[in-house]
Design brief:
single chain; 715 residues; alpha+beta; 6-stranded antiparallel beta sheet; 27 strands; globular
Amino acid sequence: MVGVSDGQPPGQAAPAARAEPDGEPLLSLALTAMLDAVQAHSGAVYLLTPGEPVLEMAVMAGMPRAFAAPWERVGLNAPIPVAEAARERHMVWVGGEEEMARRYPRIAVVLPYPFALAALPLATDDALYGAVFVTWPGARSAEPPEQVRRRLTEACDRLARQLERAARRGRPLGPEPDVLGTPAPEALTGALGASEAARMVARLPYGLCSLDLNGRIRFVNAAAGELLGADVGTLLGAQPWSVLPWLRDPMYEDRYRAALISQHVTSFVAMRPPGTWLSFRLYPSTTGLSVRISRARAVSELHRAGPQPGDAPSRLVTISQVLSLAGALTEAVGVQDVVQLVADELAPAIGSQAVVLLGSRAGRLHVLGHRGYPDPHVVERFDGTPLTEATPGVQALTTGVPAFFASQRELERLYPSRNTTPDGFASWAYLPLIASGRPVGTCVLAYAEPHPFPADERAVLTSLGGLIAQALERALLYDVKHQLAHGLQEALLPHSLPSLPGIDAAARYLPATRGMEIGGDFYDLVPSPPLAAAVIGDVQGHNVTAAGLMGQIRTAVRAYTAVGHSPGEVMGATNRLLIDLGSELFASCLYLRLDPGRGRAVMARAGHPPPLLRRPDGRVKVLDRAGGPLLGIDPAAVYATTEVELGPGALLVLYTDGLIESPGVDIEDALAELCERLAGWGRLPVDELADRLIGHYAAGEQRIDDVALLLLRAR
């Protein structure tokens, strides 16, 4: 008896009809051609998400997408090869697993197999569209062969031009079905040959089966069914570890992944209850795996190394998952990052459906964050519980002793009050989070079904609690510093803009997303009769020192304005003050004395980007007038002044360089793009216009600089 699964493997759909150029899937065809040209094993195409610094996987070939699941959507600043290739606009080459572990450890701990990788950008001279990576099994040379470099570069250049043409036509490309190889049925020559091959396989004394790239069984002989103790019909179309409980240890699935990625023959042994040891030998290719199954010898040796008879299938996380979680937790910034990482990476691996992180504040329990609860009020009602109350969360936090409850009955026996506050779950683990020798919180893992906690699982969960505790301690400290920094920033910037006669004004500020998210950009409106003044500036740096100096400069400008100094004198006096303070930081500044009644303004510049003037007819002009050097450099500097027209309906746009500077973008092009947006949106109310102009930057995940914007429109 031989079983063969028909139909198309899951995850491999027929190519979708697309508009580029003749209904064929452009990305899939380009990727498979690329793989063929350099004899690569697998690869993927990423596309840049519109309006975001994010690469999203559009198509993968040669491997199941699950193998690259942690990197389906990555930021341009992510420490992985495909993001580096896009960010730096050059080819990234990784020759093997040792180099991968050294340069990209987060990939190495998830995929600890021998393979080489090349990543390249999809970019033209004018724009970045995405990136590509391809892999080869085993280690390769330290440098890419010249022929491989040339063929990959040429292929990526062609694909980038095609993406550019599609974008110009207003039909940008999107995700396509992944491309997974399957054994060609034509390999068996004719019906007679196929029948004879089936009879031959059926006569063999050992089991044979074939897995596709997704790990699903596509062929199995009767001997394999007998050895596995399962019906052939049950096995076909399923993954072995999903239908055979004794193969659910993650180690066995890891062997399948190792064989596919390395393309090396891989073996393992497993015990089919109650005591039959089987040997599995996996022969991989680019289309799947052939598996030979036989009875294992030297059972006594295997018995010492493997699971014991009667052991339940393990649900513990693998070493790779632990290392991946540890690496991810080192990148967590705030408390909510830690909550999200535990929910996304730890809870699914151990079968938990919900998670809560608890901390303490002023002698009371504090809910730091939670995920997975249909009704959040069930969790939040515990917020503020005194640390003197007898609850499992409080006990774990105050004693540092973990608690495991396999059922509702076990929990209510020790904590009867819990029967009045059901949360809808059936079992719980309360893990104390201890860092630097003191408890910083409790991690609560909830399960939808009763869940026994054997000793080994309790040990692993308790150890994982230590990793979470260290990340939580750092996150709590960061959140405190973050709140202090933002409090300082808010205190130094105006809470609201004053109402000026004849002027409509709006302002926006965005901090950088690196460091403490605080910086030296500032703006102000000074309603000093008879003429008001507007100022915008940028102190070098993104830290508390820059913010403090910014506050001093803003105060000085206000004071010099109030005593009646002219714009040039305000700049000169502020410059000398900055030098007298002995600061090593410099600052740019733009100062305007506003006179809307006469339809003009007087401007003084100190190394600041030029303002933009939008006239009522929609034309936009860059006011790149003469000025002086940055503040804080030359005590004898003189700051020339110029007049600027400010007739009815005219709009002045003052900004800091964070609005127009970004890596890989020419500043002149960015300024021209800002002028185009201003020309199109300039008739909007100033508040709505400010939101439009700043919106692109507000949505970005990464900002390397602060952004300040001040709009002034003459009525």
